[in-house]
Amino acid sequence: AVALAADHGGAVHLHLRKQVGGKRYGITEKFGYNTIGYNKTKVDPADMQSMAALTGDKYKGKVAIYDYYLPVIGMAALAIGKKTADLTEADLPALRDELLKMKANAKLVGEVTASQTALATGEVDILVGGGEWVTAGLAKENPALDFSIPKEGAVLWSQSLAMFKDSKNKDMALKFIQYIMSPEGQARLATSSCYWGMPANTKAALTDDQKKVLRFDEQPGFLTRAQAYPAPNADLDKKMQDMWTEMLQAK
């Protein structure tokens, strides 16, 4: 196990500990959610507390879908009351139906830049699969952008640091990890220009405004409703990708 900086001890959210069989193999540095991103001046924020808003008629044509199959299939699973870790081939028909309902409401399906731009410019008002990684970095220019963790939950993404067992620079690697996990390093990582995210260290040196944008104080509750990305075996993964392709081609 890597020895961490003293001010980091116990500060990582328990949900994010990277351990197998009680042994630590890495440490989470940054995390966030694939969930509902939206423009709070264009939609009713109360509606964004349920995934039902993604398939209802109220916002038809005002929705974009992030073009990455695993997190959005995870959201579809949550919407129909399934756990992302327990998905099997038997769940595919219900997941397919949910995805097709989302697609019927969508104006576009796009990768990171296209979907983020569509939300930021007002081309759409809701982004399925969005989250703080889309909205927080744009909040200064467009404070109307926000995200929700609906009652059904959200899909959790996370980044971790690990050291190669055979590293010839273990001291430097450890110092780098300790810096990234320090309050200063965590604040810089959380607000990096590529995309914002939640720092794993609860003592991250963020400003009050930055914490507000990231919904920092709400994280314990958010994490209790979050589930990991689906982790299908090779056969199920192929079937999920085929299902996603079918959704992309649907009208």
CATH superfamily of the largest domain: Periplasmic binding protein-like II
Number of domains: 2
First CA to last CA: what distance?
51 Å
Low-confidence stretches: 1-11
Helix content: 25-40%
Note the beta-strand portion.
Answer: 15-25%
Shape: globular
Largest sheet: 9 strands, mixed
- The helix tally amounts to 9
The mean pLDDT is: 92
CATH class of the largest domain: Alpha Beta
**Structural class by SSE content:** alpha/beta
Based on the structure given, which CATH architecture of the largest domain is correct?
A: 3-Layer(aba) Sandwich
The CATH topology of the largest domain is given as D-Maltodextrin-Binding Protein, domain 2
Order of helices and strands: EEEHHEHEHEEHHEHHEH
How would you describe the overall organization of this protein?
Strands 1, 2, 3, 4, 5, 6, 7, 8 and 9 form a nine-stranded mixed beta sheet that branches. The model is unreliable at 1-11 (pLDDT under 50). This protein folds into two domains: 6-30 and 159-205, Periplasmic binding protein-like II (D-Maltodextrin-Binding Protein, domain 2), CATH 3.40.190; 31-157 and 223-249, D-Maltodextrin-Binding Protein, domain 2, CATH 3.40.190. It contains nine helices and nine strands. A hairpin with a 2-residue loop joins β1 and β2. The chain has helices spanning 69-79, 92-105, 112-121, 132-135, 170-181, 183-190, 208-214, 219-225, 234-249, and strands at residues 18-20, 23-39, 63-66, 106-110, 126-130, 145-148, 154-161, 198-199, 226-228. It is of the alpha/beta class. The longest helix has 16 residues, at 234-249.
